[in-house]
Amino acid sequence: MGDTWSGPPQLRPGRALAHTPGASGSGSPHRSDGRSPQTPRGARHTDPDGRPRTTPPVRGRPTISSGRRAERHGPRGLLLLGLPGLLFALFALITWQVVADGPLARADERLSDSLVRRGATAQFLADLGNVTVAVPVLALVLVYVAWRARATGTDQWWRPAVGAAALMAAVPLWVVPLKELIARPGPAIMGPGTGFYPSGHTATAAVAYGAAALLLLPWLRGAPARGAAVCCAVVVNLGVGAGLVRQGYHWPLDVVASWCVCAVLLTALGRWSRPRSRTSDGTDREGR
């Protein structure tokens, strides 16, 4: 009665020895031949009283790899992966119809005939796609964004500005060869001549104003300001396209085709411009 204490229970005479340490038997947690235990239970650590214990899992933030995997396979990741493919497919369809003078191209020409209504407003909107207007706007935004990024000590502060400038410089590199290769005639109001597909003014405006809004987003405070920047870029580009069609400078499909290509290019610019942080192993990784 008086021998109760808090220590581990002791062996009593007459009990089976099959469960004693070192003895052979199926119930022994230790091997009699000295080999290491094969079960996870045998490898567990014990507390001071000899009872097995385990370390509970620690909850924390998911690792970078799991986060990237979730983003890659989530709805937003699937949209970002699928949208460029859909836009390129649409661009290929339009190009094929224009080259083959298919039903879509003929419908496009009939639509254009009903939309041409020249005026001062349409001319003003079309002029927003001129290089002399769109490129200086983008240049001012690039200087501002680079200055802000460098002043705040952002790593690779030059990255967004260089990416946007390279994208703008690449516009004639893909527009001019396509114009020469496809050699689509223009609307009747433009007279004889070819090289209207795709629209270079549309591409210039889309890259200039789209890249400007994209690079300004991280420096704008609040969702209303960011939404206003995006809406402004969209409205200006819609205005440029409408002005080109209303003035008879381009067929509607010339404008739509340039929008398809430029949307893909701007998506790539958005990924290129994301801030990057340095990991513990010295490599750069994309920031959120």
Describe the structure.
The protein has 10 helices and 4 strands, in the order ββααααααααααββ. The chain has helices at about 65-75, 75-100, 105-115, 120-125, 130-150, 160-170, 170-180, 200-215, 225-245, 250-270, and strands spanning about 45, 50-55, 275-280, 285. Mean pLDDT is about 80; it is low at about 1-5, about 15-30, about 55-75 and about 275-288. The protein is mainly alpha-helical. The chain is globular and about 55 Å long.
Summarize the structure.
By secondary structure, the protein is mostly helical. Helix content is about 55%, strand content about 5%.
List keywords for this structure.
mainly alpha, disordered C terminus, disordered N terminus, 3% strand, 57% helix, Vanadium-containing Chloroperoxidase, domain 1, two-stranded antiparallel ribbon, 288 residues, 10 helices
What portion of residues belong to β-strands?
under 5%
Q: Report the CATH C-level class of the domain at 82-275.
A: Mainly Alpha
Identify the strand order in the major beta sheet.
1-2
Order of helices and strands: EEHHHHHHHHHHEE
- How much is the average pLDDT? 79
Given helix and strand content, the structural type is mainly alpha
Helix content: 55-70%
- Please give the largest β-sheet: 2 strands, antiparallel
Instruction: State Rg.
Output: 34 Å
- The CATH architecture of the domain at 82-275 would be Up-down Bundle
* Count, helices: 10
CATH topology of the domain at 82-275: Vanadium-containing Chloroperoxidase, domain 1
Shape: globular
